[in-house]
Amino acid sequence: MTRINDRYRPLAAVLTLAVPSLAASAETITVCADGCDHTSINAAIATASDGDVIQLAAETYFEGEQIDTLGRAITLRGVLDKAGEPASVLDGAGAHRVLICQNGETSTTVFRDLVIQHGLVGGDFPENRGGGMYNDSSSPTLTDCNFCGNTSGTGNRNVAGDAIDGSSSGNLLLLNCNEGDVNFDLAIDAGDLGYLLSRWSASSVLNADINRDGEVNGADLGLILDHFGGATDATWAP
Questions:
Q1: pTM here?
Q2: Bridge partners of 76?
Q3: Residue 85: CB partners within 8 Å, gap ≥ 6?
Q4: HSE on the CB side for 1, CA within 13 Å?
Q5: What CATH class is the domain 180-238?
Q6: Residue 8 CA from chain centroid, whole number
Q7: Three-point CA angle 149, 130, 40, nearest 5°
Q8: What is the DSSP string of 56-103?
Q9: What pLDDT digit, counting tens, does each position of 41-82 carry?
Q10: Are 106 and 94 in contact (CB under 8 A)?
């Protein structure tokens, strides 16, 4: 018996060393406007490995394209404000979808403490559903995320089947998170008034139709005036 133990002792030593090294391989990758590992979320994802955490600051991120997790078992994590609300905002700026999982992501791909807002896709085809998030044969985990002001072939109103079809908890599905910042410059001012008035009486205008009643009219103007002179609050909910 002594000889058998001696024979396998080197292998046991290798395995003992290997297990801690695997656990220690996970990294936290930071993303912010300045002073972090990356300024782009997609760039951070491209460098991430399974098990890594991508930590976002309390900022609004305009990625310029949809954020794709590339099938990786990673965590995209925001931060909370003093009230315990998500303060890391992923914003589609009314120009594109915010998030997509299309490479077989499972529950090990996690989105946590995020606001996903102003995502946009059009049309009635399946790939054009889910302005906030579209999951194609994928089931990520979403926890304590706020979806608001997203529009698609089915809209944010049907987000439970389109934007969140993975396991989830504590998420809020809001029709609108826009206090009146229709031009997305993070202030509610004359620029927003001009934008709205130039689209007066138009229908299906994502940004200017603040209350999502299908028309740009006095009700939307009233919402701007109610908050005029203020700054947008990413955690505000109607």
A1: 0.67
A2: 54, 111
A3: 146, 235
A4: 0
A5: mainly alpha
A6: 49
A7: 75
A8: E-SSEE--SS-EE-TT---EEE--B-TTS-B--EEE-TTTS-SEEE-S
A9: 999 999 999 999 999 999 999 999 999 999 999 999 999 988
A10: no
